[in-house]
């Protein structure tokens, strides 16, 4: 199931998980793999299973291992049951965290569909109101603007670039979008998902691991307009040999016959990584705005869309500064936590204690399972241990930054096909990986911040079922995961002295100095050395120069510009624009104090976030862990207690029953060019069928023909209205249930019809909303109701409009005939 999917026509998560375990058992051969899967199956089937129900009888060796997996025979040895509650050797204190719960866990409601959703996808509703709001913002996005969307993991961010590509290809067959992804695993996973979608089957991932011949074939197909979505790493997108073709595709007209690509959007997936990884680990992330700037030179109408599940204020400010450029900017936020996981936190003084607890947990954790470490070496050691003779797991894979391209692709495919039960990984695996039925995530480390922990546990339980999340970390005299977390979270910032010396070295070696309007532009050689540094530092020296330049960009002192598309520059040079001329003086105290203050503020914020996260992880029974992490990440949001962490279990706090997703309060203030000739005012329309019954389809067809792209309907009518919108031929077909147009929620700024509900109180509330829209609306607003209807003591035809009421069959004439509405 893809990220944008819904669950309406799918089996429940328990049935799907049982089917998955059954398939996996049929192909598992090792005793450890089989018994772990048997245990998972027993949990899903209520804690007991008849031996005769297994795919084959257990062997003597498997019977001998039952206690290791918390299993025992029962019912005169004809059945198996789970015995965790009787296990005196529970090294973690799992307790209620392992209690099976079949109840669906997502506490947020799905949203009603729009016509465009039904027409371009196989989904019958949106996962959340935020997904609906983001889709509406995407499809009404002004040319040359930026859209920032924050939604929980698994709530369907990828639906946005899927819809964008298909929507634009309805107009131009070569329309395409690029999606920049932070990891190869994510790019490959998106490629796999897109390959099964109508209209998007030929989407391709182009990564650093793509062989040259395959790269050439993909680029040629892209140039011909045959690749609707091109997935790229930042490094690939900024490579001059690739960039020239992106610029070519952005150009509004073909540069050569047969090159039909028309680039319309650039998406950045997991955009919060731009701030955290781009600071020092992969500085090309913070060079990405230069890509947008270069594409906008070719076509000012290119739209940028940034997607993320978590957006701390620091990342939010950085993204707006880098990506807004000269265009409009809109942010759509769910402000919605994920509470599907039963959370266990444990810390130890010695690594041997953690190792024993991890072994205990791995044998019992529901499958599929991801185990995260921070260091590549730790992942390798753990992977080897799981496969040794004592542990004997075979259905396990290792995925880190050192994993080769062929193995990466194989692991992603095998993981999707349920041929792997455990992935041992670093953060290289996981961001956005779209496998809905992952049941468990274990951190054999302490993540370097709440965002990483929250993101990575979010890999589990995307199918609305029970998830399990454990964090086992060491804080002792010989090893401290806490110290390692602080080292990672607070690294990547140069001291002021070293920063000044590096800048002086870069300026000394700068070339191509020229002024563009008021700012100095130049080319910097990233191999330039600061004084006293040996000229053999290579990648290390280059990396710190990148770190410095991205810091200066975040501080507003300079901007990294687009790189030449001809590829005639040295491999390691950046073109920049100096925004603060004092920086050209070398070591200017004021400008370096500005940079230093900015650096100190970033460092203090990172440390403060980690302080709060470490405090709750050290004492997880004192405050709700998940809520604390979410509110550190999203400080402007409020979350209730999760009901499923150590503190909530200790205090008998129940999970929330209902969580409200935000987003529908956001809209673009500038209206798109509207269809038809209706005046930008409130109009009263008399329907032929006053009850909107059998006459609803013909009414909708008439409304859409005269330019209506959005309809507000009485409660419960949205699905059939959206279906009628599809049949009417309108491309947008936005639909709002009256209950979705409440509070601060807004209409999209397109021609809108409002079907007044029969209930008097609801109609009066709707009338108030219409009055609020009257002064600010710049598009036609059609109120569909009988003119003689009385609300608040007055007839509608006396209050609602300065125009006389129009009958439904007069609308086409008012708009200038049917042709005017097309």
List the keywords.
alpha/beta, Rossmann fold, Arc Repressor Mutant, subunit A, 7-stranded parallel sheet, 28 helices, 36% helix, globular, disordered N terminus, disordered C terminus
The Cα radius of gyration reads 29 Å
Structural class: alpha/beta
Q: What's the CATH C level of the largest domain?
A: Alpha Beta
**Helix percentage range:** 25-40%
By CATH, the architecture of the largest domain is named: 3-Layer(aba) Sandwich
Main β-sheet, spatial strand arrangement? 6-7-5-8-9-4-10
- Average predicted local confidence, pLDDT: 88
Spatial gap, N to C terminus = 36 Å
**CATH topology name of the largest domain:** Rossmann fold
Number of strands: 28
User: In DSSP terms, counting alpha (H) and pi (I) runs of 4 or more, how many helices?
Assistant: 28
Main sheet specs? 7 strands, parallel
- Total count of domains: 4
How are the secondary structure elements laid out?
Blueprint lengths: L12 H15 L3 H14 L3 E3 L9 H5 L6 E4 L4 E4 L32 H6 L8 H11 L6 E5 L7 H12 L5 E6 L3 H11 L9 E3 L5 H12 L5 E4 L1 H5 L1 H11 L11 E7 L4 H4 L11 H11 L4 E6 L4 H11 L5 E5 L7 E8 L2 H14 L4 E4 L3 H12 L8 E4 L5 H12 L5 E4 L14 E4 L6 H8 L9 E8 L6 H9 L6 H13 L2 E6 L2 E7 L13 H16 L3 E3 L12 E6 L10 H30 L6 H9 L12 H5 L31 E5 L9 H10 L4 E4 L4 H11 L5 E4 L14 E4 L4 H15 L6 E4 L5 E2 L2 E2 H4 L6 E2 L3 H4 L8
Parallel strand pairs: 4-9, 4-10, 5-7, 5-8, 6-7, 8-9, 11-16, 12-14, 12-15, 13-14, 15-16, 21-25, 21-28, 22-23, 22-24, 24-25
Antiparallel strand pairs: 1-3, 2-3, 17-18, 18-20, 19-20, 26-27
Catalytic activity: Couples ATP hydrolysis with the unwinding of duplex DNA by translocating in the 3'-5' direction
Keywords: ATP-binding, DNA-binding, Helicase, Hydrolase, Isomerase, Nucleotide-binding
Family: Belongs to the helicase family. RecQ subfamily.
